[in-house]
Amino acid sequence: MPSYILKRLLSMIPVLFGLSVIVFLVMAMIPGDPAIAILGAYATPENVARINSDLGLDKPLVQQYFIWIGNVLQGDFGRSFALNRPVLDEVLERFQATLVLAGVALVLCSVIGLVAGVVSAVRQFGWVDKVITFVVLAGISVPSFWLGLILILLFAVKWRLLPASGMYAVYGGGDLKDLLLHLILPASTLAVVAAGVIARLTRAAMLEVLRQDFIRTARAKGLPERRVIYRHAFRAALVSVIPVIGIQAGFVLGGAVYIETVFQWPGVGAMLVKAISTRDILLVQGGVLVVAGSYVLFNLIADVVQTMLDPRIRT
Predict the structure, then answer these.
(1) Tens-binned pLDDT, residue by residue, of the chain (315 aa)
(2) Which of 45, 74, 123, 188 could join 128 in a cystine, given CB atoms 3.0 to 4.6 angstroms apart?
(3) DSSP run (H or E) holding 80
(4) What angle do CA 283, 293, 277 make, to 5 degrees?
């Protein structure tokens, strides 16, 4: 196992390098002068030249990249001109809020997706299977930002049951209960699509496993059906589902960008939207790089868990 983990860690290096190149090029291709966007009304020729010099924008594109990535490798992500603070400090502070939202949404979609998939497979072609399939397909088809707005309209505006935005109440609150109340709507919205995907693939994996010889053998030995389903079939199906959950972790992180905007959640997504509008290049690059790196790390964890469940994968 240690050699397998080391091999997977080494394989992350070219992936992260490619991500850094893509992030840098995307920001470089955005039209307009970043210095003018940063300075606004103070964009005099002298100030523009000074900002371009400070950011290294007066150098060739290739040289700009190697200067930036060299600083990143030393832990220096630069300084945000809009916020006047180190990029890494801002990103890590915001990323904590994003991890809370994405983590709760991932647990929620995993539990719902796995349970729905198993029940749907066990009750294949029954009314329970049809209802779950309809709900899953509807959840996958509905745009998350639209669903978020509908949930705000119903639960926050019309029925006044849950808060509509923010991470904590503006006045009072600030405890765990307050945080959980503010998490319900955004986490549920973020989890819907991922739960649908996990449920569909869990159902397919369970149906395939239930046709295997070892399941028929377990039933022939007289084992209780519940034990056959949840101890034997579900564990075997989980090997195929774990990588999907890892992929959905990346989807949840990416989806947090617009969900945080809808619910005014103070995470990396909301930060990136503001940074892009102000052309805060270093802040955008740092934020996207941290989120992308986390996505790669989540996939590594999923691969390791899958290997622990099925050691044959190592070979």
Answers:
(1) 678 778 877 888 888 888 889 888 888 887 777 778 777 777 788 888 888 887 788 888 899 999 999 999 999 998 888 888 999 999 999 999 999 999 999 999 999 999 999 999 999 899 999 999 999 999 899 899 899 999 999 999 999 999 999 999 887 777 899 999 999 999 999 999 999 999 999 999 999 999 999 999 998 988 898 899 988 899 899 988 988 898 898 889 888 878 998 999 999 988 988 888 888 888 999 998 888 888 888 888 888 887 877 766 655
(2) 123
(3) strand 79-80
(4) 25
The type of residue at 204 is A
Report the DSSP beta bridge partners of residue 85.
80
> What does the block give as tokens for 114?
């796995």
Q: Scanning the structure block, which residue is given the tokens 């469940």?
A: 309
Q: How many CB atoms lie within 10 A of CB 30?
A: 12
Interior angle at CA 113, CA 112 and CA 118, nearest 5:
105
Report the alpha-carbon distance of residue 78 to residue 94 in Å, rounded. Answer: 16
Alpha helices for 142-233 (secondary structure H)? 144-151, 176-210, 213-220, 225-227
Give residue 67's identity as a one-letter amino acid code.
I
Query: Are 207 and 133 in contact, with CB atoms under 8 Å apart?
Result: no
Calculate the dihedral angle through the C-alpha atoms of 75, 86, 278, 28, rounding to the nearest 10 degrees. Answer: -20
> Over the Cα atoms of the chain, what is R_g?
24
